[in-house]
Write a structure and sequence with these properties.
It is a single chain. The chain is mostly helical. The chain is elongated and about 50 Å long. Helices cover 80% and strands 0% of the residues. Helix 2 packs parallel to helix 4. The chain contains 6 helices and no strands. It has one domain.
Length: 179
């Protein structure tokens, strides 16, 4: 279960980073923005790994021998992408007004990685529904807090959160392959 908690924290870093950016640029109505970010990001971060898990289970019989390698590859790819993105500007730079449509697009964009990471749940000995609930709640909390941090401190923590998440996903990938 510790792997799920670590995975949840790592996956939530994308949404956390975006939430910090949103909070730093939209300092009015911070409470409602924090709630909106938390709910959107939390729900999508919970659903996407479940989709990845279901897809992985569907093909698991065919690829069971390669499952650790596939999980390793996907987590290293996602972690590397997060590290790369931590060195560039966030997409929330250009967002002037936060609408439900904007939040939906941001939630999907930040949770696509979680779908691929959901495949790794097929090789862990965990209940996938509980794991996805943990991922969703963790993301909700990190996103909610991220908006408040961004509104108070600006964006200096934004890239560091994404970098941390990427490194943790890389380490989880290595652990799945070698341990």
């Amino acid at each position: 279960m510790i792997e799920v908690i670590i995975l949840a924290i790592a996956l939530s870093m994308d949404a956390f980073a975006v939430s910090i950016g949103l909070g730093s640029k939209h300092t009015k109505k911070t409470s409602s923005l924090a709630l909106m970010a938390g709910v959107y990001f939390g729900v999508f971060q919970a659903l996407m790994p479940l989709i990845g898990y279901m897809g992985g289970k569907g093909v698991f019989g065919w690829i069971e021998a390669f499952a650790p390698w596939i999980a390793f590859f996907l987590l290293v790819l996602i972690g590397g992408k997060m590290i790369y993105e931590s060195m560039s500007e966030g997409i929330e730079e250009d967002i002037a007004k936060i609408t439900h449509k904007v939040m939906l697009v941001l939630a999907i964009a930040t949770s696509i990685d979680a779908m691929a990471a959901g495949f790794s749940l097929t090789i862990l000995d965990v209940n996938p529904f509980i794991a996805c609930a943990i991922i969703g709640v963790t993301t909700l909390v990190f996103s909610w807090v991220g908006v408040f941090i961004g509104s108070k401190s600006g964006t200096w923590l934004e890239s560091k959160a994404e970098l941390f998440g990427g490194i943790v996903l890389l380490l989880i990938g290595v652990k799945m392959l070698f341990i």
